[in-house]
Amino acid sequence: xxxxxxxxxxxxxxxxxxxAQQQGDYSKEPGYFDFGNILSLKSGDTVTEVYLExxxxxxxxxxxxxxxxxxxxxxxxxxxxxxxxxxxxxxxIEKLYDVLASxxxxxxSKKWNxxxxxxxxxxxxxxxxKSGSNNSFDGLVITAVDKNGKVTLVNIVGKIDLATIGKxxxxxxxxxxxxxxxxxxxxx
Length: 188
Hints:
By secondary structure, this protein is of the alpha+beta class. Helices cover 44% and strands 32% of the residues.
């Protein structure tokens, strides 16, 4: 676990340089999703923003510690990992839920499969996958908002198999991955 923490810290350190040198246009990738409408609702300072592109992900995948932990193999086929976490003012909460409903419709109309939907009071979380070939996925999207108005958005672009999703979920605590596996098996 300590090795994974050091890898993540290294990723964050490199992400500063990588963000300044963003070179790829991932918007054409089937697993890419633009969170523009939701991001426009943020208030205050951004809590977390991570943008890791393919060159950096490949470098991390080749690191010794990452390979020993199996994490390197899990990220090897990825092209982009994008995470945004921020607060939304209470006055914009209703608008946020409307935008999230629109995003849900947009993703599903573009053949993304919503595999997890959780709603508890004002907290909401959805997980979507974009099916690819050979029992893999081309992308993963997570949208979540908690009762305090903290929004978390995740987009992972690239070839992701079920084992990769499981490893990523363990490292980054993605919600209910077992439900994703069960739902995918039901569709086969």
